């Protein structure tokens, strides 16, 4: 496990935890699969036909509409959607986001293990874990919202049972589809920025909140400290 310790956390016993941003970016690239799959699912549900037509049963009725369009008859079945795979994948994404926030859970994350292994021969770039926790917290909120969108009846039933009232409908999806579609593309863009450009918007928001005094803690990411250079200086002395 020494490679795991040395390529993800600089030192798991530090009071202020630092993680290898090289491994973080590799992991973000791997996790892009989840929002991409969700985007394809939403595209299929919202922008393709909900009907399955049996082409062998299509017949010309020899009638036309007022717009001079030929009317055909045939058998068709309305599609039913099962989001079990999407739900399981979102739960896995939530697990990965939560696992990366703490030392004792990070060891159980397959993506962290793989990313750390792939980054083992690359120069580490140490960055504080706290801003990443904030960014991953935003990811948890987005994933949770998508879970509700894919399972509106389950969520509505839980809320109605909790408050003993019919606050939410259980017969239709009460969340406008424009919201998850927008959030999915936002999530894809943010993860692409992280993986390809090394730009973490959540970290920037965290730094801004620290600067504004909303979050009362030092912004270690803003200090731009080269910890490896300091370590080499002490070793040379």
UniProtKB/TrEMBL annotation:
Residues 20-209 form the DUF4395 domain. The chain crosses the membrane at residues 28-47, 83-104, 134-159, 179-202. InterPro entries: DUF4395. It comes from the Bacteria. Pfam families: DUF4395. Keywords: Membrane, Transmembrane, Transmembrane helix. This is DUF4395 family protein. The lineage of its organism: Bacteria, Pseudomonadati, Pseudomonadota, Gammaproteobacteria, Thiotrichales.
């Amino acid at each position: 496990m020494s490679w795991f310790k040395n390529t993800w956390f600089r030192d798991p016993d530090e009071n202020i935890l630092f993680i290898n941003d090289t491994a973080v970016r590799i992991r973000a690239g791997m996790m892009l699969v989840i929002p991409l799959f969700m985007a394809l699912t939403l595209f299929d549900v919202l922008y393709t036909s909900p009907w399955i037509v049996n082409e062998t049963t299509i017949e010309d009725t020899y009638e036309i509409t007022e717009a001079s369009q030929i009317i055909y008859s045939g058998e068709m079945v309305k599609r039913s959607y099962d989001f079990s795979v999407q739900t399981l994948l979102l739960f896995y994404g939530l697990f990965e986001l939560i696992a990366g926030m703490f030392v004792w859970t990070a060891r159980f994350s397959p993506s962290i293990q793989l990313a750390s292994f792939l980054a083992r021969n690359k120069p580490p770039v140490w960055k504080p874990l706290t801003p990443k926790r904030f960014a991953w917290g935003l990811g948890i909120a987005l994933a949770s919202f998508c879970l509700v969108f894919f399972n509106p009846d389950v969520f509505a039933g839980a809320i109605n049972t909790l408050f003993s009232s019919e606050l939410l409908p259980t017969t239709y999806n009460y969340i406008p589809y424009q919201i998850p579609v927008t959030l999915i593309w936002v999530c894809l863009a943010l993860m692409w920025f992280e993986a390809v450009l090394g730009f973490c918007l959540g970290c920037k928001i965290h730094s801004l909140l620290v600067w504004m005094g909303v979050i009362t803690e030092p912004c270690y990411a803003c200090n731009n400290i080269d910890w490896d250079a300091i370590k080499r200086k002490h070793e040379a002395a």
